[in-house]
């Protein structure tokens, strides 16, 4: 299940938080973006980032993030996370302050394990030094 709850900043009608996902055969690509700032400008930037990811989602995450950063250089920009899920594998990368978690449920012990996923400093349009792509087994 994929879900998002958006809430505009107080006094604004548009929200800069966007989520989109694409199913290509057995591979699911999920992208979460937070456009810089608030309101219509933040939403516009987030939507442009989502559109870029949608068109380039088959590229490696390193190429995808670098290309999106370059394409957004004259735009407001934002932060983003991209997750690929295929079979029992998760590939994940994040630039900026989007926090990802992998939650594993242990039904036998009636508990769960939470793993904080790595995020890199920077932003899309403003550059980032390094992209740490994580490869995890689900």
Helicity range = 10-25%
Number of helices: 2
Q: How would you characterize the largest beta sheet?
A: 5 strands, antiparallel
Low-confidence stretches: none
Gap between N and C termini: 15 Å
Give me the Rg, rounded: 15 Å
Bin the strand percentage.
35-45%
- List the helices and strands in order: EEHHEEEEE
Which class of secondary structure composition applies to the elements? alpha+beta
Write down the overall mean pLDDT: 91
Strand count: 7
Form type: globular
Description:
It is built from two helices and seven strands, in the order E-E-H-H-E-E-E-E-E. By secondary structure, the chain is of the alpha+beta class. Strands 1-2-3-4-7 form a five-stranded antiparallel sheet. The chain has a two-stranded antiparallel sheet with strand order 5-6. The longest helix has 18 residues.
Highlighted features:
two-stranded antiparallel sheet; single chain; five-stranded antiparallel beta sheet; 138 residues
Topology overview:
Elements: E1 17-24, E2 27-35, H1 39-56, H2 61-71, E3 78-86, E4 89-95, E5 101-106, E6 111-116, E7 134-137
Provide a compact summary of the structure:
With 138 residues, the chain is α+β, with helices and mostly antiparallel strands. The protein is built from 2 helices and 7 strands.
């Amino acid at each position: 299940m994929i879900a998002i709850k958006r809430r505009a900043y107080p006094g604004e009608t548009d929200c800069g938080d966007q989520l989109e996902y694409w199913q290509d055969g057995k591979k699911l690509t999920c992208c979460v973006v937070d456009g810089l700032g608030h309101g219509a400008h933040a939403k516009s930037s987030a939507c442009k980032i989502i559109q870029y990811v949608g068109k380039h989602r088959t590229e490696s995450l390193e190429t995808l993030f670098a290309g999106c950063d370059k394409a957004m250089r004259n735009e407001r920009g934002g932060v983003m996370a991209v997750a690929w899920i295929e079979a029992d594998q998760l590939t994940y990368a994040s630039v900026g302050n989007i926090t990802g978690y992998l939650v594993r449920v242990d039904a036998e012990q009636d508990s769960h394990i939470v793993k904080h996923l790595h995020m890199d400093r920077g932003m899309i349009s403003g550059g980032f030094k390094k992209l740490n792509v994580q490869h995890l087994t689900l």
